[in-house]
Design goal:
Elements: H1 8-17, E1 28-29, E2 35-37, E3 51-53, E4 59-61, E5 71-75, E6 80-83, E7 92-99, E8 106-111, E9 118-121, E10 129-137, E11 150-153, E12 172-174, E13 181-187, E14 193-200, E15 205-212, E16 217-223, E17 230-238, E18 241-249
Antiparallel strand pairs: 1-2, 3-4, 5-6, 6-9, 7-8, 7-10, 10-11, 12-13, 13-16, 14-15, 14-17, 17-18
C-alpha cells in the first residue's frame, strides 16, 4: 500500500490565507498527486447575517433601530405628550400604552418620515398610571423591538373653573389639540370688552390680548404656532365674569 502524505505546498497555501483551518481542512493526496480525501472549510462556517441596502450609505446588516431618548414632554389629567430624538426617519412609528402592569395594549401608528419627534396620547383617565412603549418600522421594512416601557401617572382633574360668564356660557376651543391655529369662540353682548390670556402649566403668561365683540357670538383666531408643545390654559375675562379652558399644543 502506498503511503499517503499531505502535500507541503497545499499546507503553505492554506496557511497563507487563514490561520483558522486545521489538517482536516486540507486536501490529502497520495504520492501520485491523486486526491484521496478532503474537507470543505467554507461549508462548515456559520452563515453570515443577512445584508440589505439602506439606500444611502451602502450595505448594512438587516437591523432596525428604535427611537432614542423617549421621554414625557408634558401631561395633564387626560393627555400625555411623548417626545423622542427626531434624528433619523422611519416608514412608521407605533406607540402602545396600557394601564401599568396590564398587557391590554392600545396601539396607534403614525407616519415616521419625516420623524415628528413627539405624539400626544389623549382621552386618558385622571390620576391613572400608564406604561408606554414605542416601536419603529424602518424604510427597509424591518421592524424594531419595543423600547423599554416608561411609566407615567396623569394629573388629577383641575380645580373647578372660576365664575363662568353670564348664562353659564363657556369658551369653546376648536381644534384642540392644535398645531398652528385654533378658534376661541364665546357669546357675550355686542360691545363687550374681553381680555384673553394664555398661561402654561407653570402659570407664566405666553399670550395676552384685548377683544371688543362686534356681535353676540365672538370668534377669535389664536395663533399657537410659536407655542412650545404642552398643555395651556386659555382664560377669558370681562365684566360678566371669568371662564377658562384647557388647550393642548402639539
Amino acid at each position: 500500500m502506498k503511503k499517503q502524505t499531505i502535500t507541503i505546498l497545499s499546507i503553505l497555501s492554506l496557511f497563507a490565507t487563514t490561520t483558522q483551518i486545521n489538517a482536516q481542512s486540507l486536501e490529502i493526496v497520495d504520492q501520485n498527486q491523486t486526491i484521496v480525501g478532503e474537507r470543505n472549510p467554507i461549508a462548515s462556517m456559520p452563515a453570515k447575517p443577512p445584508i440589505v441596502s439602506n439606500g444611502n450609505n451602502g450595505n448594512v446588516s438587516a437591523f432596525c433601530a428604535s427611537i432614542l431618548s423617549l421621554n414625557i414632554v408634558d401631561k395633564s389629567s387626560s393627555n400625555i405628550i411623548l417626545g423622542w430624538a427626531s434624528n433619523g426617519n422611519f416608514a412608521s412609528i407605533t406607540i402602545r400604552y396600557a394601564l401599568s402592569g396590564s398587557t391590554n395594549w392600545r396601539t396607534v401608528t403614525i407616519a415616521g418620515n419625516p420623524n415628528p419627534g413627539q405624539y400626544a396620547i389623549t382621552g386618558l383617565n385622571s390620576t391613572t398610571t400608564y406604561d408606554i412603549q414605542v416601536s419603529t418600522t424602518c424604510l427597509t421594512g424591518l421592524v424594531s423591538q419595543w423600547t423599554h416601557p416608561i411609566t407615567v401617572t396623569t394629573f388629577d382633574e383641575p380645580t373647578p373653573r372660576l365664575t363662568p360668564i353670564r348664562n353659564n356660557t363657556r369658551i369653546n376651543i376648536n381644534p384642540n389639540p392644535a398645531t398652528l391655529t385654533t378658534i376661541v369662540s364665546y357669546q357675550v353682548p355686542a360691545g363687550t370688552v374681553s381680555q384673553l390670556v394664555v398661561v402654561n402649566l407653570s402659570g407664566r403668561e405666553v399670550f395676552k390680548t384685548q377683544i371688543v365683540s362686534t356681535e353676540d357670538k365672538t370668534q377669535y383666531t389664536l395663533d399657537v404656532s410659536d407655542f412650545a408643545p404642552g398643555l395651556y390654559f386659555v382664560r377669558l375675562s370681562n365684566r360678566n365674569g371669568i371662564s377658562s379652558e384647557r388647550l393642548t399644543k402639539l
